[in-house]
Fold this sequence. Notes:
By secondary structure, this protein is an alpha/beta fold. Helix 2 (59-64) links the parallel strand 5 (49-52) and strand 6.
Amino acid sequence: MADPRFFRAAGPYSVSEIASLTGATLGGEGDGSLVLKGVAPLDGATTDDLSFLSNRRYIEQFGASRAGAVFVVPALAKHAPAGMTLLLTPNPYLAYAVAAGAFYPETVLPPVVASSAFVDESAVLGENVAIAHHAVIESGVVIGAGSRIGANSLIGAGVVIGKDCRIGANVTISHCLMGDRVTAFPGARIGQDGFGFAPNPPLYVRIPQLGRVIIGDDVEIGANTTIDRGAGPDTIIGTGTMIDNLVQIAHNVQLGRGCIIVAQSGIAGSSKLGDFVTVGGNAAISGHLTVGDGARVAGGSGVMRDIPARATVGGLPSVSLVQWLRQTAILDRLAKRKEK
Length: 340
């Protein structure tokens, strides 16, 4: 059960209600009238909790679980303990995500402007916008209906924020046009200067960064992530892209739709990633490269050349996944021979 000091439950819900919400089918020794009060992992759940099994490595926990009901694929249902109510679905993780969101909906700020916030008289706020304490909204800003601006955040002059966006505490946004339903977690920095200099020995001359950051709908930007504005061309974040914490996206970068960029990754200037590209944690992509649609970059990789669509690469410098695994195996054998 989630700690009630931090998470307020909206239930209880019956198993039948959960099945209807998620499209799951009642199975096992199912009881549609069973009432559940929350969600919990398999090994910590009680008869009041809903859980899920999506990975075979947890079959033993599943067989010993005391959960009241569990989302599971039909092929693994036979491993359930006697008396457990099952919710059969081809995608237990997705079903659990939907159900957990119903049990613990997002807590939102009330639609008011705090007395300590500063809102320039030229700013335009839609209906039911909330602005928390000490936030600053500068001239010409437009904020869409239902959006929330967290405490101490700065929304720079001219920025446009769409409807139902969630801007966390201590976020800085400038030179940005943002779509609807975007989430920026605390500490994110969006639209700052890109890292561009012209050499003029013994010093450098900063190149004006005259572009913007364009963010599509339904984007998530993790805590302390930085997205620089373009130097001339815009930096673009495609609709539905998910960006983890502590990611650096440099000027002029273009991300397609539905990309996943995991924590501590960096994408250097002017690189273009297609739709549904996945970049693992602590990976680095050099500048001016093209990564094709659906490509995958393993965590810790260093990408120094273009990647074709749907390719999977790993290593430093990155090569095809098959080649990387072969190289790793060869190095392992050589090291063992030297030890002998």
